[in-house]
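A quick word before the example. In earlier lectures we treated sequence and structure as two separate objects. From today on, think of them as two lines of the same record. Here is PaiB family negative transcriptional regulator written that way.
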Amino acid sequence: MYTPEIYKNENQEEIKKFLQENSFGILINQTNGKLCATHIPLELETNKEGKDILSGHISKENPQWNGFMENDQILAVFSGPHSYISSSWYDHENVPTWNYIAVHVYGKIKIIEGEAVIESLKKLVDKYEQNSENPVRIEDLSQKTMMQSRGIVAFEIEITEIQATKKMSQNRDEKNKQNIISELEKVNSNQSIAIANGMKKCPI
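And the structure line, produced from the sequence above:
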């Protein structure tokens, strides 16, 4: 991912938090000579060796998984808030731009089988059911329902590289930064407010 130095985020704890909070990513690999992409949750975890991994699963009907055995190299893309930045918000002439947060994770993928698949599903469901009034638990599902797990391909991704971009108008002076924040708050969309809040936490 092309990222000018000024926008590179190398804060590992911040990146991990971002991946945990924005885990619905895009899994990209090459299958049968073509690039394939699937939108799925990819959960950041730590394996038994203490290494950071991503875990997930896709349907067996999705041909993308055939490529896992041909070439284990993958790219996972995660996007956070983003918003258009009008150059009319500056005190000088310039071009419009876009502020955003994104993380690209490169790694090696391997298929997992057996009880590890069920454990992976338990972790996934428990994470997203924790605030539910009547939480679903994998352990409580019938054998008939759990038969559907045979229709998925579960995997783990050993992370080899992470590239993170946090573009928050770091190239602007304090006056223009405050102008941008004020205008984003006037736009008052979920995305613009998230970027405005991010800019407040991001030093110039």
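Notice the following. The first helix runs from residue 12 to 21. We will return to this example when we discuss secondary structure assignment.
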